[in-house]
């Protein structure tokens, strides 16, 4: 460094091999030395320093004299290979007014053992003494007397192995230290351990007071601590949520409990008893015997209350050790449940994509509502004054009383003063809205003015009313009677009526009257199908009239878009037959831009799904189906977060919006919503009214297309394995509970299996394993017991005897029985049905029909639950022992896929209760997770963060597993699950989401199969050209970064990635479409053979379709 800037770097040879820590000593300017903490050849932890010789660009051969070497006792660091030690420099504390006292010269802290040690730098006299001794030794080593030389060398080794007394120390009463940070320039450090316990180490006036350790409180386990400002620190956590904390000088919560638990054998003093004498700064702690404490031994403060305030939390679901993909309510909308966290932050996490509904008010007691409308006093008013609801039998009007934030609803029983006034309320209402007053202007063109007119449509026809603000009554102005109206819709100046027999009428609202503008009965058609739904919402919301009308038909199950022309309805386009007939339709522009419209036709079908199409140039394309249950969904246009959206209400609710250049649906966690309409009042601005079978709800939808995470904290109970039983609607969770221990003490654990409710995650049942057993696997299946299918849980455990390889284990079969004979799963009892002893650790359990498959150490075992004399037992059918360490397992039909952690992957087949080896890969792959892609395909991940795929082929007439994909992911995959995150389906056969994967860093990813072989070649070419034009991760070539890696690294001779396309990378092409020069460069490649042959528009459509799958 020169003037604070990097000038030159150089490599040096470090004599110490087994390094534990490396840090600069706090020396004066232009003096440099490295403090080195290492394990020497005698397996002792040694701390020494070496000078940096800038002239020679080397480290000194001899240890530095500014820091006296020392061996750290194994009582302080009992297991140096199992704990992490940290070196921290301590700046000098000089006393300017005292010439005789040099103060504290600076030194090094050793943190991480059973004690915190502080070693001071040598004084100038001490350094001179060390140099003198070293010169004498060097002189003796050059002697011609061999005995003298040997004595000098032994003396040198003896000095290096001396244990030097620390100038300061304090007992560390908690577990392994995971993070340390300095507090500004003051001599204080914040220390965090594995269980999130934070403490403050004070070195103020350290020579007189010693080290003072002050507990602060409990937070997430810290991987990093960063002091920001004003007593604010950032806790970066891998095992829990990262947090922003505020430290307080006084307790802020938990006033009656200890700040942190401190073992009874650790001597403590209270802060109240810590006092200072008037002598020469001598620190004293007055206990019951009034003994003075030695400053070199330090003080641990005992306090009550937490000194920590959480200012902000940053959600984190890492590490994901297990996960499942479930549909808990049978609606087709899947959610992810993960086992995450560690230390004191074990948790289950429910992850879903969608939107949030913020409930602002509810109106209970309104049952069987099928339609809702918000009504204004005048057409151009911005606030609604009434809510109209319709049931299957009648119509009800409510007045909104909104004053000073206190909102009530008044039921309007009689809406009129005379027999010719008031709304029709004894029959259901099909359509209702405020309308404009249409008059002909001086130019001869219609002008739309503000009015107090509304239109109500019932099965008998359309009625126009005028609202009297003074009397708060509706007076009928005009009506248009019809034989039987089956469906209707309104714009601000039009009424569209669908009559029985397929007849369609369009009424224009004139000044105080209706005028029939189109009547299909007057046309040439002799037969038209029955109409099931109609919509006339204008594509331009600023216009008071519609140019298109959408009609759906019962018999043909089709939807047709008509253009409203001067001669009647002109068909624009019709859909092919849909899976079911439509009960609601909507033509909507999701991105109303002058140059870039996004027109979509949506239809809520009778089978509980929503079908939608992109509409452009009189063509419908890109059909997709989104399931919402089994009730026909209703569709309503609304604005959310400033975006034009469509709310689809059914058994489940979802919001369609334009996100990331595609139509995206965001599920809402609300059930059985009948309909939803916009509502805007002084109190409930930009809100929605949602009708359910039992009540009305007013609220707002927010955070569209956002990933929502619901955490169920379990604290010290760390979830390890997870399964789901749909018949009981419970999650089975394998738990490993840890008891916080001091550094060097034996870790006490307790394994258990628990059942949680799948909605509220209430604990329903618990089964504790033996004290010396460690749970390793859980799974559920439903064998036939006493003639009926009975759900049971299989739990694998091994005996934890600190062996290099476990030699004892068990498979437990548990049954969940309602407690107290109850039929509902409000409380369950886990009963042990059967058990089987095995000679090893049960790493994984799966099933093929009623056969239990378990991997135990190096073998694969088959079991079957049998009954003998009314006693159930697990009968071992067969073993297959041809591996080293089988830790991962997957099944598909009658196939078994196993991953040997020390070797590779094998494909087996179960036939008549026996195992047959179909094929295996003999390359060293070190797999950690495997899953089937089909009967003949396998996907896996290995220790080196690579994804690998295999395909069953035949080589020289024999079956073999051929590696047909290898790709560096850069993340440690812990689990693969077959399936997709999205619930919608598409008629595009180019892509198929096949797997979801999870990683130790909390990453969730999707594997998508490219089913079109020609398209896969085009995407591979796009990836190649994009890599040549856009820098990859960290500026490295994308091709080189994604090439498979191993522990030895890689060279240019190693093969590149194959069989995989980096989806995130190729989707970057969409962000470059606004840069024509770059797009042309990507198209051209580096040569004519590399030029892309697929049009840019096709690439854009393909990538947008790919985006919709994740």
Would you write up a description of this structure?
With 1110 residues, the chain is mostly beta strands. It has eight helices and 81 strands. Helix content is 7%, strand content 50%. Strands 10-11-12-13-21-18 form a six-stranded mixed β-sheet, with no helix packed on it. A six-stranded antiparallel β-sheet has the order 24-25-26-55-54-53, with no helix packed on it. Helix 1 packs antiparallel against helix 2 and helix 4 packs across helix 7 (1076-1084). It is elongated, with a radius of gyration of 38 Å. The chain starts with 17 loop residues before the first strand and ends with a helix. Residues 276-292 have low confidence and may be disordered.
Helix fraction bin: under 10%
Q: How many beta-strand runs?
A: 81
User: How far apart are the first and last residues' alpha carbons, in Å?
Assistant: 47 Å
Structural class: mainly beta
Number of helices: 8
Which residues sit in consecutive blocks of at least 5 with pLDDT less than 50? 276-292
Characterize the overall form. elongated
- Main sheet? 6 strands, mixed
How much is the average pLDDT?
Answer: 88
Strand content: over 45%
Q: How are strands sequenced across the largest beta sheet?
A: 10-11-12-13-21-18
Which radius of gyration do the C-alpha atoms yield? 38 Å
């Amino acid at each position: 460094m020169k003037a604070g800037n990097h000038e030159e770097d150089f490599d040096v040879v470090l004599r110490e091999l087994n390094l534990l820590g490396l840090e600069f000593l706090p020396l004066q300017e232009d003096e440099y030395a490295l403090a080195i903490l290492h394990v020497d050849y005698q397996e002792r932890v040694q701390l020494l320093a070496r000078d940096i010789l800038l002239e020679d660009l080397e480290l000194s051969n001899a240890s530095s004299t500014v820091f006296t070497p020392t061996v750290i006792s194994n009582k302080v660091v009992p297991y140096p290979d199992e704990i992490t030690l940290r070196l921290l420099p301590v700046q000098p504390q000089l006393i300017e007014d005292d010439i005789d006292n040099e103060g504290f010269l600076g030194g090094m802290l050793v943190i991480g053992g059973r004690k915190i040690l502080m070693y001071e730098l040598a004084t100038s006299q001490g350094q001179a003494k060390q140099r003198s001794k070293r010169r004498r030794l060097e002189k003796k080593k050059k002697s011609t007397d061999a005995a003298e030389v040997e004595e000098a060398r032994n003396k040198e080794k003896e000095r290096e192995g001396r244990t030097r007394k620390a100038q300061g120390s304090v007992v560390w009463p908690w577990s392994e230290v995971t993070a340390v940070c300095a507090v500004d320039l003051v001599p204080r450090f914040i220390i965090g351990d594995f269980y999130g316990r934070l403490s403050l180490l004070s070195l103020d006036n350290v020579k007189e007071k010693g080290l003072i350790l002050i507990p602060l409180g409990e937070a997430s386990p810290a991987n990093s601590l960063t002091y920001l400002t004003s007593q604010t620190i950032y806790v970066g956590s891998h095992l829990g949520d990262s947090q922003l904390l505020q430290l307080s000088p006084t307790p802020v919560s938990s006033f009656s409990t200890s700040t942190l638990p401190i073992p009874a054998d650790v001597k403590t003093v209270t802060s109240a008893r810590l006092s200072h004498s008037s002598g020469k700064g001598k620190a004293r702690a007055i206990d019951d015997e009034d003994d003075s404490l030695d400053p070199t031994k330090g003080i641990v403060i005992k306090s009550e209350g937490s000194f920590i305030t959480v200012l902000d939390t940053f959600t984190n679901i890492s590490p994901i050790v297990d996960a499942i993909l479930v549909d808990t309510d049978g609606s087709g909308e899947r959610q992810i449940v993960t086992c995450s966290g560690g230390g004191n932050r074990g948790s289950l996490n429910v992850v879903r994509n969608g939107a949030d509904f913020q409930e602002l008010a509810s109106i209970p007691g309104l049952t069987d509502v099928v339609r809702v409308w918000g009504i204004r006093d005048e057409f151009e008013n911005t606030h609604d004054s009434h809510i109209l609801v319709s049931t299957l039998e009648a119509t009800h009007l409510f007045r909104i009383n909104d004053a000073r934030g206190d909102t009530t609803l008044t039921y309007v029983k009689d809406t009129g003063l005379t027999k010719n006034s008031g709304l029709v309320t004894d029959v259901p209402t099909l359509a209702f809205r405020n309308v404009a007053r249409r008059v002909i202007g001086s130019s001869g063109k219609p002008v739309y003015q503000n009015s107090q007119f509304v239109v109500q449509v019932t099965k008998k026809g359309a009625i126009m009313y005028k609202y009297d603000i003074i009397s708060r009554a509706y007076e009928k102005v005009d009506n248009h009677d019809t034989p039987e109206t089956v469906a209707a819709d309104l714009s601000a100046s039009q009424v569209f009526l669908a009559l029985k027999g397929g007849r369609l009428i369009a009424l224009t609202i004139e000044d105080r009257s209706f005028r029939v503008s189109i009547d299909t009965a007057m046309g040439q058609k002799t037969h038209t199908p029955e109409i099931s739904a109609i919509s006339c919402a204008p594509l331009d919301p600023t216009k008071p009239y519609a140019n298109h009308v959408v009609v759906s038909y019962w018999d043909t199950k089709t939807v047709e878009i008509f253009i409203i022309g001067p001669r009647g309805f002109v068909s624009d386009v019709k859909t092919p037959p849909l899976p079911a007939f439509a009960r609601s339709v909507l033509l909507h522009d999701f991105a109303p831009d002058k140059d870039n419209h996004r027109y979509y036709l949506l239809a809520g079908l009778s089978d509980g799904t929503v079908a939608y199409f992109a509409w452009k140039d009189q063509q419908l394309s890109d059909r997709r189906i989104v399931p919402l249950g089994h009730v026909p969904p209703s569709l309503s246009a609304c604005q959310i977060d400033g975006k034009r959206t469509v709310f689809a209400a059914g058994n489940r609710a979802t919001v369609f919006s334009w996100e990331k250049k595609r139509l995206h649906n965001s599920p809402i966690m609300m059930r059985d919503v009948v309909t939803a309409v916009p509502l805007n009042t002084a109190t409930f601005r930009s809100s929605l009214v949602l009708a359910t079978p039992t009540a009305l709800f007013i609220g707002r939808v927010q955070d569209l297309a956002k990933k929502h995470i619901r955490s169920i904290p379990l604290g010290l109970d760390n979830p390890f394995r997870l399964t789901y039983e749909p018949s009981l609607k419970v999650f089975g969770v394998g738990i490993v509970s840890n008891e916080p221990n001091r550094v060097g003490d034996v870790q006490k654990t307790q394994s258990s299996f628990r059942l949680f409710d799948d909605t509220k995650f209430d604990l329903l049942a618990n089964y504790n394993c033996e004290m010396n057993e460690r749970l390793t696997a859980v799974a559920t299946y439903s064998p036939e017991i006493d003639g009926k299918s009975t759900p049971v849980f299989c739990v694998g455990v091994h005996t934890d005897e600190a062996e290099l390889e476990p030699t004892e284990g068990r498979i437990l079969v548990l049954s969940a029985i309602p407690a107290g004979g109850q039929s509902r799963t409000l409380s369950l009892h886990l009963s042990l049905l059967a058990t089987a002893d095995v000679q090893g650790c049960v790493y994984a359990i799966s099933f093929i029909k009623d056969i239990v498959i378990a991997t135990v150490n190096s073998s694969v075992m088959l079991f079957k639950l049998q009954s003998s004399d009314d006693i159930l037992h697990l009968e071992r059918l067969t073993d297959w022992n041809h591996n080293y360490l089988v830790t991962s397992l997957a099944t598909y039909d009658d196939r078994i896929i196993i991953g040997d952690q020390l070797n590779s992957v094998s494909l087996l087949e179960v036939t008549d209760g026996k195992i047959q080896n179909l094929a295996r890969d003999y390359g060293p792959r070190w797999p950690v997770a495997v899953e089937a892609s089909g009967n003949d395909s396998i996907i896996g991940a290995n220790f080196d963060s690579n994804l690998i795929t295999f395909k069953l082929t035949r080589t020289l007439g024999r079956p073999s597993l051929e590696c047909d994909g290898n790709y560096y992911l850069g993340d440690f995959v812990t689990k693969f699950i077959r399936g997709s995150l999205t619930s919608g389906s598409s008629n595009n056969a180019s892509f198929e989401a096949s797997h979801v994967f999870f990683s130790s860093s909390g990453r969730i990813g999707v594997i998508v199969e490219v089913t079109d072989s020609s398209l896969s070649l085009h995407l591979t070419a796009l990836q190649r050209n994009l890599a040549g034009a856009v820098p990859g991760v960290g500026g490295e070539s994308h091709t080189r970064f994604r090439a498979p890696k191993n522990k030895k690294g890689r060279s240019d001779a190693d093969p590149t990635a194959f069989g995989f396309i980096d989806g995130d990378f190729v989707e970057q092409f969409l962000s470059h479409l606004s840069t024509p020069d770059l797009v042309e460069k990507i198209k051209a490649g580096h040569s004519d053979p590399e030029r892309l042959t697929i049009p840019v528009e096709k690439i854009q459509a393909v990538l947008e379709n790919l985006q919709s799958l994740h």
